Amino acid sequence: MPKVGMPAIRKPQLINATMEAINSAGLQKASVAMISGYAGVSPAIINHYFGGKNGLLEATMRFVLRQLADGVQSRLQETDKNDVVGRIKAIVGGNFDPRQLDSKVVKTWLAFWSQAMHDEQLYRLQRANEKRLLSHLVYELKRVLPREQAIFVAQGIAALIDGIWLRGALTPTGINSDLAQKLIGDYLRLQLPEEILSRY
Questions:
Q1: Domain count, the chain
Q2: Which tens digit of pLDDT belongs to each residue from 72-101?
Q3: What distances in angstroms separate CA 175 from CA 88, 155, 156, 164, 181, one per listed residue?
Q4: What residue ranges in 94-200 does DSSP mark as E strands?
Q5: Where do the DSSP E strands lie in 67-137?
Q6: I want to staple 50 with a disulfide (CB 3.0 to 4.6 A). Which of 3, 30, 55, 174 is the partner?
Q7: Longest dimension (CA), the chain
Q8: Residue 3 lies in a domain
Q9: Considering the entire predicted model, what is its pTM?
Q10: Residue range 40-82, pLDDT digits in tens
Q11: What's the CATH number where 126 sits?
């Protein structure tokens, strides 16, 4: 986490510079010097406020995860509270929000996933994000399915989100948001009883 006193104008600048550097050179080659060059600041600022590249990656991912949470919440707020299927689709749609599909954000996600296996702080962020997604899905699914089945279906949806995301991120054309949501919607229709689907 950045230290108290980090100028508000500098933090977004450095976060964007981190994503730009990862996008152009990959995490390993995105040095503090390169990131500071993109941001137009001294490398000493990054080391002082973030403790180096890993701290800056953590701050960057916290920003990306806040954007993800905001995308999900805004869609849920626009969806009828009684429309369970619509709300699940809103959660899925938030994970394929255009802001999340920007090339530099996608590459930052890939860097984050790879580093999370080796960095305790990043791993905790990943686990928190995973739990938040499952919690949202299970909450909605429990309204129409028994608890154990709701957990099972939620895990299936989460696995599809991650798998489609990873597959799309590694293809030249990128992640196809519409196709991803159709595939997951099809899975959901297979898992929900017909009488539930007929309500919506």
A1: 1
A2: 999 999 999 999 999 999 999 999 999 999
A3: 20, 21, 19, 8, 11
A4: none
A5: none
A6: 55
A7: 62
A8: no
A9: 0.88
A10: 888 888 888 888 888 999 999 999 999 999 999 999 999 999 9
A11: 1.10.357.10
